[in-house]
Design a protein that fits this description.
Blueprint (H helix, E strand, L loop, with lengths): L2 H15 L2 H10 L7 H21 L2 H25 L2
Length: 86
Amino acid sequence: MLLEEIFGWIASILTTLIFIPQIYKAFKTRLTNDISMLMIVLAVLGNAAWLVHASLTGNTPLIVCASLIIIMSLVLIVFKYNNEKS
């Protein structure tokens, strides 16, 4: 494994982990008012662009990272919508 691929995987893992504390806190407290919907939507759009780029260039760590962040962002959007509609 090349050094740049190792750092690609490290960066992908760390970047993906940044959403886990927010999702955990939202599920635990059921409070989502302080989470910016615009930030989440921008995360989805930005990572969708990274996913296309990574797919075109064959960057596996970035494909995995962008995909997971999109999924976690969508989970947060649904959770935020469901908590705030009542």
